[in-house]
Amino acid sequence: MDNNNLSTEYDTIFEDDKLNIKSSVIDFAHLIEQNTYIEGGVSKVYSISSDFGTGKTFFCEKLKRVLEKDGVQTTKMNIWEMDFYENPLMPILAKLNEIYKKNGKKLPTKIIDSTLKFSKNSLSFLCGTAIKSISQKALDVDVIEEFKNHFPSKSLYDDFGQYQKALKELKETLIKWAKNSDKPIVIIIDELDRCSPDYAVKTLEVLKHFFDVSGFVFVLAIDENHLKNSVKCLFGTENFEGYKRKFINNTFLLPHPDKKAFAEFLYDRSGIDSVIKKIQEEKRELVFLVSLYDMFICAYRFSRNGDGIGEMKAREYNASQTSENIIKRYFAAYSIWFNFSLRQMEQVFDRLVMFIKQIAVSNELFSPDLAVFLVCLHEFDVKVYDAMCRSDQIYDYPITNMNADD
């Protein structure tokens, strides 16, 4: 498929693409679509890596739609919303079942029961042993002997045998599913970096242990620095790359977002124009323009031909000096300078809109550039902001301390 076709085939998906990620999403989608079933192969796990709040969710939503348009069986889940489940196996299996049941069947769930059975029994036993120890006010309770008495070896072997059968049944079903599909089955897992460290790591282990079947592709949206800290916290290892390679085949670095385009998107979405128009009608807008008359005089005074280039540039400048352009321009600049994430930009812009609405119902003057600066500064460093707002930080210098030349 040539690039010209690519530019139109997915247009409806990317109508709201203010981050300019269209080509990156399409390229990545076509990369993972190559991971079809191979006899004796294993699943593929990719990570979409970037800092928290920099557009991973938007990328994943577009990726899902591109894959679906290409006929790939795809589902997407927010794993952070599911971390109240002790075991991530349950929500992941449920999400996969949403696709599988379209064939009129259901994925086997015995694996969930057999996995949880022993852990629940063990937890109940350990709690009972602890209570027994406390009630006897003794520390000589032999936990190992208690464990042997509570769980005879036959019971342990039976539980393990049931677990192996359930796992085999699940994997045989997944293999048959992947074999009968001419394209991979893709599950996109978003917000993994918002989960607790143990749950994030447990999710990786579940994918490796239960779903390591060729023809399945897992895409993880993560902040790898956050995951690195989680691994270090849990295991004390500094070899994060070695640990990561056990679970993740390839990492795709999300392109840096176009914050200027995103600032324009936030402004257009806010619908703040009508509020600013009210301020303009009441002549409370502080937007300073170049005097065209002065430029006209200067052009003829300092130019032999009076070519009017200065006047033309002044007209161009004045045309750009509207509250809308100033807000978009300054907000993008401060977002870049203060290194705001996209999520921060969205939150800060919401506060800016609230501030402008407050100005609109008051009798105060409105300076768009100053408003953007103050709201962004408040987000970046609230201490500096507070210091600027306190009157006791404004110092008056007596005339007697000034030099005569001043």
Report on the architecture of this protein.
The chain has 406 residues and is of the alpha/beta class. 58% of the residues lie in helices and 7% in strands. It is built from 18 helices and five strands. The protein has helices at 3-9, 22-32, 56-69, 89-100, 110-135, 143-150, 153-179, 197-210, 224-235, 240-245, 259-270, 273-281, 292-302, 309-320, 323-337, 342-360, 368-380, 382-389; strands at 44-49, 73-78, 185-190, 216-222, 250-253. The protein has a five-stranded parallel β-sheet with strand order 2-3-4-1-5, sandwiched between helices. Helix 5 runs antiparallel to helix 7. The protein is elongated and about 90 Å long. The chain starts with a helix and ends in a 17-residue tail after the last helix.
Give the key terms.
single chain; 406 residues; alpha/beta; 5-stranded parallel β-sheet; 18 helices; 5 strands; elongated; disordered C terminus
Going across the major beta sheet, what is the strand order?
A: 2-3-4-1-5
One letter per element, helices H and strands E, the order comes to: HHEHEHHHHEHEHHEHHHHHHHH
End-to-end C-alpha gap: 72 Å
Shape: elongated
> Tell me about the biggest sheet?
5 strands, parallel
Rg over CA atoms, rounded to whole Å, is 31 Å
Ranges where pLDDT stays below 50 over 5 or more residues in a row are: 121-141, 393-406
Helix fraction? 55-70%
Number of helices: 18
Give a short synopsis of this structure.
This protein has 406 residues and is α/β, with parallel strands linked by helices.
Topology:
Elements: H1 3-9, H2 22-32, E1 44-49, H3 56-69, E2 73-78, H4 89-100, H5 110-135, H6 143-150, H7 153-179, E3 185-190, H8 197-210, E4 216-222, H9 224-235, H10 240-245, E5 250-253, H11 259-270, H12 273-281, H13 292-302, H14 309-320, H15 323-337, H16 342-360, H17 368-380, H18 382-389
Parallel strand pairs: 1-4, 1-5, 2-3, 3-4
